[in-house]
Amino acid sequence: MAPLKLGMVGGGRGAFIGAVHRKAAVLDGDFTLVAGALSSTPEKSKASGRDLGLADERNYGSWEEMLDRELARPEGERIDVLSIVTPNHLHFPVAYAFAEAGFNVVCDKPMVTTSDEAARLVEVVEKTGVTFAVTYNYTGYPLVKQARQMVREGRLGELRKVVVTYHQGWLATKLEDEGVKQAVWRADPDQAGIAGAMGDIGSHAENLVATVTGLEPSHLCADLTTFVPGRALDDDGNLLLRFRGGAKGVLVCSQISTGEENNLSIRVYGTKGGLSWHQETPNQLLYRPLGSPAQRLTPGQPYLADAAQKFVRIPSGHPEGFIEAFANIYRSVAATIRAKRDGGDEPLQNDFPTVHDGARGVRFIETTVASSQSEKKWLELSP
Amino acid sequence: MAPLKLGMVGGGRGAFIGAVHRKAAVLDGDFTLVAGALSSTPEKSKASGRDLGLADERNYGSWEEMLDRELARPEGERIDVLSIVTPNHLHFPVAYAFAEAGFNVVCDKPMVTTSDEAARLVEVVEKTGVTFAVTYNYTGYPLVKQARQMVREGRLGELRKVVVTYHQGWLATKLEDEGVKQAVWRADPDQAGIAGAMGDIGSHAENLVATVTGLEPSHLCADLTTFVPGRALDDDGNLLLRFRGGAKGVLVCSQISTGEENNLSIRVYGTKGGLSWHQETPNQLLYRPLGSPAQRLTPGQPYLADAAQKFVRIPSGHPEGFIEAFANIYRSVAATIRAKRDGGDEPLQNDFPTVHDGARGVRFIETTVASSQSEKKWLELSP
Amino acid sequence: MAPLKLGMVGGGRGAFIGAVHRKAAVLDGDFTLVAGALSSTPEKSKASGRDLGLADERNYGSWEEMLDRELARPEGERIDVLSIVTPNHLHFPVAYAFAEAGFNVVCDKPMVTTSDEAARLVEVVEKTGVTFAVTYNYTGYPLVKQARQMVREGRLGELRKVVVTYHQGWLATKLEDEGVKQAVWRADPDQAGIAGAMGDIGSHAENLVATVTGLEPSHLCADLTTFVPGRALDDDGNLLLRFRGGAKGVLVCSQISTGEENNLSIRVYGTKGGLSWHQETPNQLLYRPLGSPAQRLTPGQPYLADAAQKFVRIPSGHPEGFIEAFANIYRSVAATIRAKRDGGDEPLQNDFPTVHDGARGVRFIETTVASSQSEKKWLELSP
Amino acid sequence: MAPLKLGMVGGGRGAFIGAVHRKAAVLDGDFTLVAGALSSTPEKSKASGRDLGLADERNYGSWEEMLDRELARPEGERIDVLSIVTPNHLHFPVAYAFAEAGFNVVCDKPMVTTSDEAARLVEVVEKTGVTFAVTYNYTGYPLVKQARQMVREGRLGELRKVVVTYHQGWLATKLEDEGVKQAVWRADPDQAGIAGAMGDIGSHAENLVATVTGLEPSHLCADLTTFVPGRALDDDGNLLLRFRGGAKGVLVCSQISTGEENNLSIRVYGTKGGLSWHQETPNQLLYRPLGSPAQRLTPGQPYLADAAQKFVRIPSGHPEGFIEAFANIYRSVAATIRAKRDGGDEPLQNDFPTVHDGARGVRFIETTVASSQSEKKWLELSP
User: What is the pTM of this model?
Assistant: First the structure.
C-alpha cells in the first residue's frame, strides 16, 4: 500500500515536536513527507526542508505559498494530510485555511488559543468534512485505550473519583532566558495563548480524563500560579473538578516540580473497581477490582480488548513508547482517510482526538484561567 | 532499664488501633501495660483486661474509676503514661481529666472533635507540663524524619509545591451496615465528630505536610463529598491549599477509592530539588536534586541524617513497617519522660506530635468542613 | 493469657540478632524475657542482663549455669523456651544440652555447623519431644506462606524452574578488620563454620525454596568465591540445582554485591503459572497465571489463604516488616507449646521451621562447599 | 540528507522481526526500503513485496536473484545495506554472499549456526571491509550504553560479579504445534541451529554482559533443559560463568517461565559500586555507589554520558522503547557508512554489534551446549 503524502507547517531546525511528528508519521509506513513550510522565514524554511531531503519544488517559504501551490497541483498529487506543528498562535490560521480548502489536518495541541477560534474551526471542519486530528498523543497509548474500554464496559461500575496529575520540572528555572527554543515560545503569551503550564500540559491531562472516563466536567475551581519571577504565564496549576452525574476530581499540572520529568498519571475509581496508569511506565495498567487481587495488564496479551490490542505492534514485554503512541494517531488518521477514499475495511480508523476534543480543551483552558482570576472561583463549564 | 508503666483507655475486644498501640508500646521494651479501662461497659472492660493478663486490681470498669484509683496509688506506683484509644468523642474528656491530674498522655488522632476542646486541652497541658503525644503515626517513619531534615537543611531550596494524597477504598461500600466496628463509629457523627474521611485520614495527610515541610497553610478551598448513599459524613475530600510564603498545595483524601489500601504519599518540590515518599513502600525516599540523578535513600545507611537514623532498629534492607513507625512515637515519649525524670541524655526525646500538632489538626478539619459547606469556599486558616 | 517465660543465650551488648529475637518475642504479648546468659563472659553477661532489666537471680554468667539453675526451679517456674542467638559454633552444645534436658528451643540459623551435629540434634529432639524451631525468619512473612499455599493447591501446576537470589553488599570491603562485631564472627571459621555467605544467607535462600516449593534438590553444582583478599570464607556463591522430579534451579548468594542491602527474592515457575516475591518489598506477591493478567496479592485481603492471613496483624496497606515476620515464628512456637500443654485450639501452631529444616540446611551447606572444592562439581544431595 | 537504500532478505507476510527491522530503519529517516526477497518462495516473496510497496523490478523472488540483479545496477543505484531477517540457518549463506560481493550487511542474531561459519564470515568481512552489524538490539538502549560507559570509566571499580537473567514464558506450552510461525522455526534444529532458548535469548544475554562489562568468560558450566515434551531443543538454561581476571557470573535464560514476557535484566557489581538495568523498564538505570544513595539515571538528563545521550531522541520522561533501541543500530550503521563514504563527522558511527560480537556469540552457544552435554561440565571458552 503506497504511503500517504504528508505536508508539514512548522517543525524546522531546532524544533522538538515537529521531529516527533515526522518519526510518528513514517514509523509504520503510512506516510511520506513530501512538502513543507517548516520555519518562520522563507530562508530558514528552505534550509530546514533541505535537511529533510524535501524536493525543491515542494520546499515552501511560507504556509500561504504551500497552500496555493498544493492546491494548484492535480488532485491526486496534492498532499493528503497537513501536519501543523508551529507555536500555538499559528494553529488557527493555518488549520482554518487548509481545512477550508479541503485538506485533512493533523494539528498539535492546544488546538487554538480561544474558544471563538475553536468554534469557527469546528464549523469549517464540519462543513468540508475533512479528517481533522489533534495530537493529544498520550491517549494514543494502547493501555489508555484499554482503560477507556474497561470503563465503557462497566468494569469500574459507576465512576466516583478521578485524580490526574502531571508533574514536570523543566521550567523550575527561567529557561526561557537561556534561549531554549521550547521554553521561549511557551512563555510568550503572544505565541502560547492565555495559559502556560495549563495550556501546555494541563490540556493533555484534561484530554486523558475525558478519553478514559467519558465524564463531562460541569464545574471547576482553579488556582494557577506563576512561581518563576518574571514569567508571564502560569507555570503551575491545581484544579478541583465536578462532573455531571456527581463524580469529583482533581487535576494537578506543574512545570516547576523540580526533578520531575514527564510524570503524567491518572487514577479512576468507581463502585466496582479502580484503575491507574502512569505515562513514564506506559506498558502497565493497574486494575483493582473490588475484593479481588489487583491486576497488572500489559499490551500484547490475549486478554486485552481488541480496541487496545490493534494498536500494539510487538509482543508483550517489548516496550513501546512515546513515539509509538504518537504514531497511533497517525495510523488512525491514515486508516480513516483510506476508508473514506477506498471504502475498505480499516480496523484502525476513527480512533484519534478530533476537532471537538480540541475545542473542548480550549474551553477548559479558558474556564480554568477565568476561575483562577475570578473571586468566585467555582465556574460552570459549558458542555 | 525498667519499662515504664502504661495504662490504656479503650482498645478492648474487637478494637483495631488499641492492639497496635500495645504492640508499639512493648516492641522496644519501653513500656509494660499495667492498667486499663478497655471497653465501654465495666463488664466488657474487665473481660478485655483479662484477655490481656491485667491484674484484677488494675483492670478497671471505667476511665473515671481508673483515674481515681491510680491517683490513690503512691506516686512511684501509678501509671507513667495513659494511652487513649477510644472513638474520637471520648478523647477530650479522658485526655483533659488525666492531663489535669498530672498524667502523661498518648492520645490517638484526631486529638479532639472541636477547636474549643483543643484550646482547653492545650491550656491544661501547658499548665501541668505533662508530656502529651498525638499518634499521627505516619510521621514516625524514619524516612519521613529524613525528609523533614532535608527540607530544614535547605536541600530542596525554597518550597513551592506540595501534593499529598491519601487513597483508601475500604469504605467504598456501606461497611458500617455490616457491623464492622471500625466502620460503625467512624460513620457516626456523635462518635467521630464533624468529619469522616477528612477527620480520619485527611488529618494524617495534614500532619504529614506540616511535619515534612514546616509550611503553614493560610487559606484552603475544600470539596468534601459523601458518595455512599445514607452515610452521614464525608467519605471523600479534595482540597486546594495556599501556604504562608507563597507555596501552593493539593490534599486529596478518600475512603471510596475502590481497590486502594492505605495509599498515603507526599510530593514536595522546591527551587533546588524535589522529594517523594509513599507509605506503602515506606523504606525508600526519592530525592531529586535539580540537574543530578534522582537518589533513592533507605534507612540504615551512613548518609542518613542522625535525626532519622536514630529511629532505625535494624540494618538496611530489613523492612520496618507501620508498627515500628508507631512505636517510634512511644520510644520518644518514653525517652522524654525519662529525661524529665532522670535528667539523663536521651537521644530520642522530643520527637513526636504534640498537643499543638493535635490542636492545629482540629482547626484544619473545622476549616475544611466550613469551606466545603460555605458559598465562599476559600477560607482563611488561623495560625 | 499469661505470656510464656523466655530465656536467652547470646544477644548481649552490641549483638544484632538477639535484639531482634527479643522484639519478635514480645511484640504480640506471647513471651516475657525472664532469664539469660547473654554474653561470652560472666561479667559481660551480667552487664547485658542488667541493661535488659533481668532479675539478678536469673541473670546468669554462662549457659551451663543457666541450665543447672533453671532445672533446679520448680517445674512451672522454669523458662518455657530457650532462644539461642550466639555465633554459629555454640548453637550445637547449647541446643543439645537444653533439648536433652527437656527445654523447648528457638535456635538461630544455620542450626549447627556439621551434619553430624545436626543428626544428633534431630535425634535428641525426637526423643524428648520438645518444640524446636530454627529462625529462618524470611519464611515467616505472610506472603511466603501464601506462595507456599498456592503451590500446594496446584495453582502453578507442575513446577519447572526456581530462581532464588540473595544479593547483599555489606561485606564488599573487609569490614571484619574494622571491628564490626557482626562481620568479625561471620568471617571466622571457628565461629561461623565451613561457609561464609553460603552459611549466612545461602541457607536462608535454601529454606525459602524448600518452604515455598516443597521441592527436594537431588544434585547441585556450586562455585563459591572469596573476593575480599585475606578473608577465610566464601563471600559469594553461585549454584545450579536439580530437583527430584525434574525441576531445575539457580541459587545466587553474595555479600560483596556492592550497594545491595538485603535483596532476597524468589521466582517459581510451573506449567500453569509463575510467582515472584521480594523480601525488600515483602507485602506484595506477584502471581502470573498462564494467559491471564498478572495479579498483585497483598496481606489482609479477603482472597488470601487462611494459612497466610492468620499471620497478618493489621489491615492491608499497613506494611508489616522483618520483625513481624520474625515474630510469626515466635507466635507459632508459643501456640504450639500452649496446644501441647493445654490441648486447646491454637490456629497458629506448627508453622515454623523445625529441626529437620535445620538439618537439611546444614547438609545443603556441606554439599555446596564440597561441590565447590571438588573437581567433579555436580554432587548428589542425600534426602 | 537522502536516506540510504535498504534491501531485505526475509521478513515477509507473517514475520515478526522483519517488520521491526523496517520500522527501525525508517524511524529516523536514515533508510528507505527499495528492494527485497522477502519470503521462502518467489510467489510469497512478491506478494509480500507488493504489500510493502516495493517497485516490481526490485521485488525479487530469491536472495540469489536479488544479489545478481543488484550487482548489475550502476554502483550508486544499488542497495546500500542488506538486512537479513530469515530464520537462523539462512543467515550464513546470504550474509557470506552479500558481504563477499561488497554489500554492507545488517544480520539478525544469532549471526550464524556454527563457529566454522562464523570464522568464515569474519574473514570475508575483514577482507572486503564492508560494514557488518548484528542486531543484538538490547545493547542499543541508551542506558545500556550509559552502563557500559560507567564501567569503562571505573565508576564500579574492579568488577566482581555479574548476574544476567532472561525470563520468558511464551514457550511454556507447545506453541509450535499450534502453527505459530515464530515458534515453529525456533523449535526446528534445521532452521534454528543447535540451541533453542540459549540461541534465541541466551545469546542476547551474553551480548549484554560482554557489552556492559567488557569481561571475557574463560569457563562456563551449563545445564540446559527441554521441559516441554516432544520439543527438540532446549527451552531453558542455567549457566555458571568465570571471567578472565577473576569475576564470576550467572546467566539464566528461559522460555518456559510461565507468565514472564520479555524480562531481561542485568546486575553488575564491582569494588566501588553496582548497576542494575531491566529491559521491561528500559528508561531507568540504577547505580549504587559504595556508601552513597542509589541513583536512578534516566535518558535525556545533563549528567548522562555523551556516548549514551547522543542516542536519545526525545526529552527525559518521554519513554523510548524496543523499536527505538533497535533503530539505534540502524542509525549507527547509516552513520558509519556515510562516514566511510563522505568522510564527514558522524557522531553516531561505530556503535553497533559487529561480526566479531556475532562470532563470539556463536562460540558461546556452542560451548554452552557442549558443557551441558558433557560429563565434565566446566568447559573453557576460547577467546
Answer: 0.97
